[in-house]
Amino acid sequence: MVDLSIEKKLKAIWELQQIDSKIDQLNLLKGELPMEVADLEDEIVGLHTRQENIKNEIKAYEADIAGHKANIKHSEELQKKYKKQLDSVKNNREFEALNKELEISGLEVLAAQKRIKETQYHMEAKVEALAQLDAIIEGRKKDLEFKQKELKTIVTDTEDEEKAMINDRKGLEKEVDERLIKAYNRIRKNVKNGIAVAPIMRGSCGGCFAKIPPQRQSDIKQHFKIIDCEHCGRILVDNEVTGIYTEKPVEEEKPKRRVRSLKAAK
Q1: Model confidence over 54-80: pLDDT tens digits?
Q2: Whether residues 128 and 207 fall in one domain
Q3: How far apart are CA 221 and CA 226, in angstroms?
Q4: Is the pLDDT of residue 16 over 70?
Q5: pLDDT tens figures, 168-186
Q6: Taking the C-alpha atoms of 246, 252, 254 and 255 in order, what is their torsion angle to the nearest 10 degrees?
Q7: Is 231 exposed, middle or buried (0-12, 13-18, 19+ CB in 10 A)?
Q8: Label partner for 160 (CA 20 to 30 A): which of 29, 74, 139, 187?
């Protein structure tokens, strides 16, 4: 890197600030869209996970119902078997035992039927919840598609301009030493508006509008060193660097001619 004078460094860092401010404006144009798109994408992923969980719960309910139906079928087959055996009982003891088995199998059928109804009730609630969730997902997808198109339009319109500015920025960074670039980036992060290099405006800092003492203004105009604002820490530059003239230069007062009085002339 060529060792530049302080004035050239100040001009380079000022130009860098102008580029970054323009990039900030482009990002402002995008607004909250990038964040909104990312949030919607995350939300849709979460909704899909919830959707899969509900589907798995419905499958589990279906499996439970199938199991209860199998138990009912088994119990009904046992009932047929016991009723057939009743025709060939030899004593009261066998008769009572078979009736007991018939009663138990009948109760098992009733219990299984009750469980099927309960499971169907819960499953229907899950099916309804799934339908509502599907509608929400479709709505979120439409919102995402709209915002993605809007963001893409803005990016497309500003892409070439932003690339050109980024290339210019890289070129300017090479003209400034690394320590000054680090200080510049640190200041930009610490201030709200991203203005790290501020011009002197009517004797005040163009960033925080605090008054700058005359001697300090004079030092800034000499370009002997990098000087920052005592109040906000921004790098200060004069109008020779910025090319911004907000005040007319003060003209030197012409010396007044001394007029001899008529009496003295006489």
Answers
A1: 999 999 999 999 999 999 999 999 999
A2: no
A3: 10
A4: yes
A5: 888 888 888 889 999 999 9
A6: 140
A7: middle
A8: 187
Are residues 61 and 24 part of one domain?
no
Categorize the per-residue pLDDT at 262 as very low, low, confident or very high, splitting at 50, 70 and 90.
very low
The answer on pLDDT for 252 being more than 50 is: no
Cα(181)–Cα(188) distance, integer angstroms: 11
Going by C-alpha positions, the residue among 19, 126, 13, 111 that lies closest to residue 62 is 126
166 SS3 class: helix
Are 24 and 50 found together in one domain? no
pLDDT at 156: 86
Q: Provide DSSP, 82-147.
A: HHHHHTT--SHHHHHHHHHHHHHHHHHHHHHHHHHHHHHHHHHHHHHHHHHHHHHHHHHHHHHHHH
- Encoding tokens for residue 203? 């004797």
Place of tokens 């200080």: 183
How many domains would you assign to the chain? 2
Helices (H), ranges, the chain: 6-30, 33-86, 92-173, 178-190, 214-222, 239-242, 262-265
